[in-house]
Amino acid sequence: SYVYLGKLDTQNANHVIDQAVKRWRELNNQPMLVDSLTSSTSITIYLGKYEEAIAASDEATRISHSINNPWGIGFSRMYIGAVYEDSGEISRALDDYGTTYKMGVESGFHIGEIWGQVRSAHLYIELNALEKASEFIDRVRAKAPKYSGLLGMFASLIKLEQSALYIARGDIQEARFTFDEAGLDDAKTYIYSQEYIYEVEARLLLASEEYQEAQQLCLERIDHLEALSNKSFLHQMYLFLGITHLKLGEFEQAETALNSAYLIADELQARWRLWQILAAQAELAERQGTIEKAKVLRTKAVEYIEAISAEIEQPELRESFLSRDDVANLVG
Predict the structure, then answer these.
(1) What's the rounded Cα separation, in Å, for the pair 85 and 91?
(2) What's the pLDDT at 113?
């Protein structure tokens, strides 16, 4: 399956993994069943089949606990945090990334150790908890020179989050320098990390007001993702595309792109993206002079924000999320 994923052939990768899961069940090989179930989640999440991914991840976790396999526990939670991020279940996502990190340390599962910290840093940036994000980034960067090969590729992603942190702080020059010097060529061959790379690149272009360049990047990624039947990254690229059209005053194209983003996010119940899409649609409606429509869209965006914040268990993270400029402007 990893060969097919390396070739970005999600259909054959999914087929091979399904066969592996069936085989390990028949043989009652629990550790290998855990491995295959978790590998299946990397594909089902990519395709937007979130319920299937959750079921497989949870089964892998239960089996790993039953056979006292900390490596399996960490691996079983490695990908599923992305589902909870997208759905706006922030505390659950952080718990899963934390489990992957802790079990990675305990069992010597170094990819999990790195991945848990990289994705935690990403989520803390999204929550506007920038000092917390910086702690994770510094921790991984301190160890990064020790890693090579596949581990080095995963560790290189922390430089991506360093760039994202600079963007969040408004230091675009440092963000650009860090992104350009990150050495992410190997990471672009991995089906997940490549999309995280393009996400930060799109954010960097938007923050730099390079809207034409951002638009071209988004169009290229949308074509790529649609060819692979992706949904978990597609709504985000349509959102970014809509924003580029909005900034360039191309309102009809902006409406088309944002409507596409909304339809995909709504199907996935991706609340984390839905409030951002609705906010962009509200801005578009306002610029088109449809003020009442803008008010309705903002109200819907605020409803998602309030639901997400109410489920964040840590008060300090709830406060930092609500202090994001775009969130604060909506909530008032």
Answers:
(1) 9
(2) 95
Rounded to 10 deg, the angle between the 193-207 and 211-227 helix axes is: 160
Which tokens is 99 given?
Answer: 């489990």
From first CA to last CA, the distance across the chain in angstroms is 48
HEC readout, 200-241:
HHHHHHHHCCCHHHHHHHHHHHHHHHHHCCCCCCHHHHHHHH
What is the rounded distance in angstroms from the CA atom of residue 270 to the CA atom of residue 266?
6
DSSP 187: G
Length of the chain: 332
Residue-wise pLDDT tens digits, 65-90:
999 999 999 999 999 999 999 999 99
Q: Would you tell me how many other CB atoms lie within 10 Å of the CB of residue 9?
A: 16
Place of tokens 């606990």: 65
Residue 185 class from Cβ within 10 Å (0-12 exposed, 13-18 middle, 19+ buried)? exposed
- Which pLDDT value is given to residue 5? 57
* Residue where the block lists tokens 């003020």: 291
Centre a 10 Å sphere on the Cβ of residue 275 and count the other Cβ atoms it contains.
25
Place of tokens 């399956």: 1
pLDDT tier for residue 99 given thresholds of 50, 70 and 90: very high
Per-residue tokens: 197: 């790379």
At 1-59, the pLDDT tens digits run 554 555 556 777 778 889 999 999 999 999 999 999 999 998 899 999 999 999 999 99
Q: Are 257 and 242 in contact (CB under 8 A)?
A: yes
